[in-house]
Amino acid sequence: KKLAGRAFEKLAELGVPPTLHPVVGSLAVVLVVSVFGLPELLYTGFDTENTILIQAGSIAPERLLAVVFWKLFLTAVCISCGLVGGVFAPSLLIGGALGALYGQGAGAFAHMVGSDISPATDYAAVGAAAALAGICGTPLTAVALLLELTAGTDYAICLPLISAVGLSVYVEKALSRGPSAFALSNVSEDALERVAMLSEEEQRAVQVFKMLDKNKDGTLSQKEF
Fold first, then answer.
1. How confident is the model at residue 220 (pLDDT cuts 50, 70, 90)?
2. Residue 28 — very low, low, confident or very high, per pLDDT cuts 50/70/90?
3. For domain 1-182, which architecture applies?
4. Cβ neighbours of 171 (radius 10 Å)
């Protein structure tokens, strides 16, 4: 997203007004979809997500990789240029494609060693839920939604799905020092700077209160302040 934002800043410096940035973003979407033949990148409801969840084992790995890469790229471009449609549906698509890809690889390896594992469709559902929970910060919604999208046909995935969602949220919280991607998707750079300033002030306030707690007289020296 930062790289895409810098690219549009360069366009502005070259004289392209911000009002035309959404047009540039739209052209990028049309170009990628047309050249690479990936209609899955266009949001037309949950049909695309359902297709991946149902046919995860039969979609070519190269196509799944292309969907993941270009969906990430175009989502960043659209957010940066002002075509903000949210990250809810993209997170489902990206997570489902990654889960399907992992399921295909795990299935091929299991077949080589003469073992059986769950079908790739289960991995796609788990991947979609984990991505949605980590990106949007909605673990309960992710679990309920994916169980609903799979029509409750296989509740055996419930435990691994909940585990993946919990791990995703934990990793996101551990690696992130600020708001989630969902919270940042519609926020301007100026607003983000103000959020960072508030965060620093809050940290400073905590330090001050800790110093006051240490000093019995409840005062701070000039150096401490």
1. very low
2. very high
3. Orthogonal Bundle (1.10)
4. 12
